[in-house]
What we know:
This protein is about 25% helix and about 40% strand. It has 7 helices and 12 strands.
Amino acid sequence: MKFILQNIDSVKLSQFIKQIEDGLIQGELKNLSDIKDYIAFSFDRTKHKQYFNKLGECFSISNIIIRDKLSSNRFEVALYFAHNIFCGYVFSSPVQDRRHITDYLVDISLINEGKIGENEFESIKQLFSNEELERINKNDIYSSNINGVLYYHIKELDDGNFIGINIDNNIYKISHDPFEVILLERNNLINILK
């Protein structure tokens, strides 16, 4: 991913190159999002705490085109960022195909930056008290379909785990290693958001 970030001339993205060089990213995780083919990163916990900013912007950069010089295959890539962390990506082709690319061109002429969360925030803001709304970053809100249930991410925890809420106004701690969805007391949300 570093080679893609290096091809996008942006001061904003240089911080994410530093994260990669610093060893923040430890691995890749699949099937943790309702975004088709999304690959999430797992993180070094100490470094995640160092870089994480709960008020940080949540955005994606899409329409990045990678061309394999040898095969002329073309891949579209979207990158995802949240809370000052480079958190994952999507390739338009199967993951195994892109691993063989050693000589490539990156085309950023059509890239698009999009905000994450603002629309989904509007669809669930009625679930929260005024005090809770003051503590929620609307950029944090996105939906994840996990085992057929739609959860809205409302607070990032360490190493990709998060606090979620469903449309029935129940809150959960959702972790991936080990995978667990734990129902929490709804009245404790305000304390969790502090």
